[in-house]
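Why CREG1 protein? Reviewers of the renewal asked for a concrete example.
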Amino acid sequence: MGGLLPLCAAALLLLLLLAAGGAIPPPEEAARMARFVLHNCDWGALATLSAQEGLRGRPFANIFSLSDGPPGPFSGSGVPYLYLTDMEISVQDLEINSNASLTVSLAQTPYCKKHRYDPQNPLCAHIIFCGSIVKVNDSEAGLAKKALFSRHPEMESWPKDHNWFFAKFNITNIWVLDYFGGLKIVTPEEYYSVKP
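Here is what the prediction returned.
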């Protein structure tokens, strides 16, 4: 029950932030939009190149919980952190080829439902990141743990014998779809230089 209260408080804070006027960055601020969407999403679709028998070399998408920092305005680092185990099928793919893409969408927040935007509507913003998954080093592990466990408190009780580890999505390319007219390209430098 104790873990439920912080989760409810975080969900309420997110709802209030998304309901606040002007909380969503304008379409001309694509880098801010990318940071905003990532920070307000708790999970994403991670696509790998499969290493599994019968699927080898084919795209394989899977859902993963993620976080770039604790809930709240201006508390995100922009780095998508993940909590992984080698037992997971997509992680086995990443051991062969660490390249991946990650898609996050405001469709998972109350924003798109409130405005009656279909998840495929460009106004229901989504971001596509390309890059690679890397294990975090010891100096970054505390930051990753705080980011993930603050949003996903259940993770702390996951079976220890699964050898969980903290990882991050090392971003090399970013595409933003948040308005009509096609994708916008944001460089990692632009992305990390703004606040959500």
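Strands lie at 43-49, 59-65, 81-84, 99-105, 126-135, 165-177, 184-186. This is the kind of structural detail the renewal will allow us to pursue systematically.
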